[in-house]
Specification:
340 residues, alpha/beta, Rossmann fold, eight-stranded mixed β-sheet, 13 helices, 33% helix
Length: 340
Amino acid sequence: MTFLVTEHIAKSSRHTTFYLSSGAEDAPLIIFVHGWPELSISWRHQLPCFAALGFRAIAPDMRGYGRSSTYSRHEDYALEHIVKDMIELLDTLGAPTAVWVGHDWGSPVVWSLARHHPDRCTGVANLCVPYLARGFTLNNVLTLVDRSIYPEAQYPYGQWEYQRFYEENFEQARSGFEADIPRFIKLLFRAGNPQGRGKPSFTANVRNQGGWFPSGIPDLPLDTSIVSQEDFHRYAAALERNGFFGPDSWYMNHTRNGKYAEQAVNDGKLKMPVLFLHGAYDYTCETVDSRLADPMRQDCERLSEAVVRSGHWMAQERPASVNAALARWLAREFPELWQV
């Protein structure tokens, strides 16, 4: 059976969320949460797959993206507000709980749901960005930087130099992306390169070179192993319509997000089943060789891990591997959810 992907709107007095859906309405929920600077279509390979496996698969456009609400203040993009968006979405869908899957900035959203609303999480899975009980903030990741690759004198913020650049030069960062959004999308969505292992990430040089693209955005051919021409145009059109203020503002709330993490239940310990997928060739969220994933192993009681041979855009670069890892975990941890 082929499952269609349909478009929907969840609207409340405080926020509007556009979302994609696939699968039977009475099936167990699995909700996929995208990151920067993506869209619900980032999960286009997962939605029909998990619908066919007996789930109702949902993927929203997150706050500031696509056809969901946008806001004009940095603080409107703090995780506390975004988590409320997702709880409202879950309520709209008429379900007490869901399996949540996140990637990039979607991962801190899903981790926050698990930390603050464990009763609304059947289980959680995240790609690339590991769990930090105290919050995935700039201060908290600095202690985990691999200084053999990022000497402090040269890279005081390690691979996270770009996050500090947002705080210091927000308008410059934003305008740099908006100068040529189609060209930026082509540059950004590229497959992982095994040759980059053990070398500084591109993101580590943003502050040292005075910006993301001091000589302009390079004009590279589209990497169709990640996005098709059709998907490329969808990404570009959405970002040209809304701009980068919203997406970039997610990086402007480290202090707020850290305070929010302090309000976690169970002291931030996660008791539900958790899956984490490492990107073998993701050199910003590098979790294979560094200590970045170590705190997660202390704070997740039922943690499963797997390595996917991909770069950062894992769900789009290696969809079969991601889908297989998720399906294995779901079958092992939640046999009661499977429709027989």
